[in-house]
């Protein structure tokens, strides 16, 4: 019997591929269910049972493939980092980038456009910055690391003006952009500033350019 089983297995090559494919599909279903649930309901509704129901799978598979909620949060954090790389091109798009100020102007506007085009990411980030829990910090740290690496890679050999605290200035600039975009999704304005029409955003773009030039010259 063992010999017969060995012979049979030798002629069933497609089965391992099928199992791998099914696992990959299940992992993807779990991941997307977790990401969507987090965006829609926040951490209050983010649980193993709810994710399993939405993914249409046994909850034990979440532990098997991701190690539980912490593993899923790590995967979502990594995805947020990939989102930065996928949404924002690393080329200059025909724009002459001669100085650090040129670069930061372009990256600021690209980041704003990327956020505006993905409301789901905005919801996740809104939850991320509104709660202070180990789970939220896990997400925030993963996204911050990804953004810092992206900025460093895009910067290349360019450097900020002497004496300028570029990390702090850039952090404030990107935080402001992020808050404006999230406010536009939630209320359509911020501190009386309308953020609904293209004309509204044209004004924001012009102001960001002035701010960057005021910082970096």
What is shown here, in short?
The protein is mainly α and 217 residues long.
Characterize the structure shown.
The chain has 217 residues and is mostly helical. A two-stranded antiparallel sheet has the order 1-2. It starts with a helix and ends with a helix. The chain has helices at residues 2-10, 14-41, 48-55, 59-66, 69-87, 100-116, 119-130, 134-155, 166-186, 198-216; strands at residues 189-190, 193-194. The protein is globular and about 55 Å long. The protein has two domains: 2-67, Arc Repressor Mutant, subunit A, CATH 1.10.10; 80-216. The chain is built from ten helices and two strands, in the order αααααααααββα. Helices cover 75% and strands 2% of the residues. This is Transcriptional regulator, TetR family.
Explain the layout of strands and helices.
Layout: H1 2-10, H2 14-41, H3 48-55, H4 59-66, H5 69-87, H6 100-116, H7 119-130, H8 134-155, H9 166-186, E1 189-190, E2 193-194, H10 198-216
Antiparallel strand pairs: 1-2
Helix pairs in contact: 2-3, 2-7, 5-8, 6-9, 6-10, 7-8, 7-9
Q: Order of helices and strands, N to C?
A: HHHHHHHHHEEH
Distance between the termini: 80 Å
DSSP helical segment count: 10
Please give the share of residues in helix.
Answer: over 70%
Largest sheet: 2 strands, antiparallel
Count of discrete structural domains: 2
How many extended strands? Answer: 2
Tell me the overall shape.
globular
Looking at the chains present, what oligomeric state does this protein adopt?
single chain
- Find the structural class using helix and strand composition: mainly alpha
- Enumerate the spans where pLDDT stays under 50 for 5 or more consecutive residues: 1-21
Rg (CA only) = 22 Å
- Strand arrangement within the widest β-sheet reads 1-2
Strand coverage percent: under 5%
Mean pLDDT: 81
InterPro entries: Homeodomain-like_sf, HTH-type_TetR-like_transc_reg, HTH_TetR, Tet_transcr_reg_TetR-rel_C_sf
Pfam family, one: TetR_N
Organism: Pseudorhizobium banfieldiae
Keywords: DNA-binding, Transcription, Transcription regulation
